[in-house]
């Protein structure tokens, strides 16, 4: 029941958030967002991905973006990489940290990358060898940890298997994604209980979507299990591709509000975080999905 | 850490929700909503209030409304009553359960009803004597339990004092309201810990607003303390009067989704509850504030 004293927030808005926008966001706007996130004290900003521009045109400018980031000391800028080709692109622009992604659901893996979970892990082992040779840090994602859009419930043990595979492969941190936001608190705890049998809790991140409004409750539940890394998206950027109109990533502002209230250190500044959210919300001409942002702007 | 096996949901949409609408909602629409809530399995529906129609025109038709409710066995329809005059009105139409409301903040009580907390409790003792003589059940509200719009933080002990006063006065259930939605999980637990020193936990209800997105996390936190009664509002009806544009009551659909996920019995049917929310959202020509409702309708 002891909560962590400190939580690391991994900001995924520029990648996981903006990749869901219908129209690609220009590099200069992404740079403006990243700069404001740095000023708010965020120490990890997932900035883009080296995936096929044919499939994800929103991320097509990731190499250009990465090169233009005025990197701050103490801040890391992981880039998502699906395969060796992506890794080459990442290396060519001097990326120091990458993220690879697997899923805990067979159906999701089949539909998403057209292979089995086992094969997906095997494919990453090549990426991993190369990444290690170049001294890169590698973060691993597991999606569908609390449910799958195709097969529904996912057994906690399946999540643990995939998390262990990525950890054994050499990922220094495993981010557990409730991709469809269907999880509830006790299930989130059971999933963490299963995963911590294979991977130390300090290497686990909770990456929860708020599609059904459950994300903060689920985060509070896993904080109670000692999870001390949270992925979130400023202004709640990122819809849910499986339910148009529904919200996606939990908003960093709302996470920070809860952590502040719990007395947990993050190093983030709410005022500046709100400014970052305001910046991108104005560009997108959309009200922020963060309730904290709405309440505070309404109170002005 | 043991969660309750069963939770009673008190639906406050028709009163606490609709009293925040700019234009009063017609009696027939409220009746349609109440009927659909009954069909969804809700056993307590706060239907209206006998307050001055000058101050709260949204509730002016409460007597007419109450008389027209086709009351179902096993369902109670509490009506808010601020004073003896309100009680007389309630008795004249055969109300069997009333609710009275106090606050844990001196400033809020002064601004809201122009007297001290102590005086407010004293005033209710007359209402209570009369109510008991007529065999009415009385529910007591304490507002501002996790913060006040005027004085900020509220000590848990102050909440406990007011809750005890209402309990000693004869209220069978004390509903603890985070009126401005500023609470976070550990503070909610500390508040419950203080109150349960004076009032048995089975007589406590959590009435949390979602203005800052924290309501479900706070509810999960107090469920862990044994609280087994939750006030909520279908479709998240009810804005926050202190922050225009910000959301108010936690949505019943979102609460039910979490409780279902936790394996906690409620007697409510999600499909029918969504129909009730859809009915009132269509009338108000507004998207539901419930994320579950949005996600499920988006998935259709």
From TrEMBL, chains A, B:
One of its GO terms (biological process) is L-leucine catabolic process. Keywords: Lyase, Metal-binding. Pfam families: HMGL-like. Pathway: Metabolic intermediate metabolism; (S)-3-hydroxy-3-methylglutaryl-CoA degradation; acetoacetate from (S)-3-hydroxy-3-methylglutaryl-CoA: step 1/1. GO terms for molecular function: hydroxymethylglutaryl-CoA lyase activity; metal ion binding. Its EC number is 4.1.3.4. Residues 7-274 form the Pyruvate carboxyltransferase domain. It is an enzyme of class 4 (lyase). InterPro entries: Aldolase_TIM, HMGL, PYR_CT. It comes from the Bacteria. The keyword Lipid metabolism does not apply. Belongs to the HMG-CoA lyase family. PANTHER family: HYDROXYMETHYLGLUTARYL-COA LYASE. This is hydroxymethylglutaryl-CoA lyase. It comes from Sedimenticola selenatireducens.
């Amino acid at each position: 029941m002891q909560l962590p004293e400190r939580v690391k927030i991994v900001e995924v808005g520029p990648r996981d958030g903006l990749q869901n926008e219908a129209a690609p966001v220009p590099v200069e706007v992404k740079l403006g967002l990243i700069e404001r996130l740095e000023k708010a004290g965020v120490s990890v900003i997932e900035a883009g991905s080296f995936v096929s521009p044919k499939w994800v045109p929103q991320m097509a400018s990731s190499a250009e973006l990465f090169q233009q980031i005025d990197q701050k000391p103490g801040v890391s800028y992981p880039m998502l990489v699906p395969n060796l080709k992506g890794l080459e692109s990442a290396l060519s622009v001097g990326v120091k940290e990458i993220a690879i992604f697997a899923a805990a659901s067979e159906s999701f893996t089949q539909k998403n990358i057209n292979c089995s979970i086992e094969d997906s892990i095997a494919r990453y082992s090549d990426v991993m060898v190369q990444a290690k040779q170049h001294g890169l840090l590698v973060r691993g994602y597991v999606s569908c940890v609390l449910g799958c859009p195709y097969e529904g419930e996912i057994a906690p043990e399946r999540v643990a298997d995939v998390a262990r595979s990525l950890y054994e492969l050499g990922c220094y941190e495993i981010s557990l994604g409730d991709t469809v936001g269907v999880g509830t608190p006790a299930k989130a705890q059971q999933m963490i209980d299963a995963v911590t049998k294979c991977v130390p809790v300090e290497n686990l991140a909770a990456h929860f979507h708020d599609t059904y409004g459950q994300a903060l409750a689920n985060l509070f539940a896993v904080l109670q299990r000692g999870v001390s890394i949270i992925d979130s998206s400023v202004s709640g950027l990122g819809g849910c591709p499986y339910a148009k109109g529904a919200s996606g990533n939990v908003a960093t502002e709302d996470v920070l509000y809860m952590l502040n209230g719990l007395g947990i250190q993050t190093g983030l500044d709410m005022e500046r975080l709100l400014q970052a959210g305001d910046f991108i919300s104005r560009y997108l001409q959309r009200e922020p999905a963060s309730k904290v942002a709405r309440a505070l702007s309404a109170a002005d």
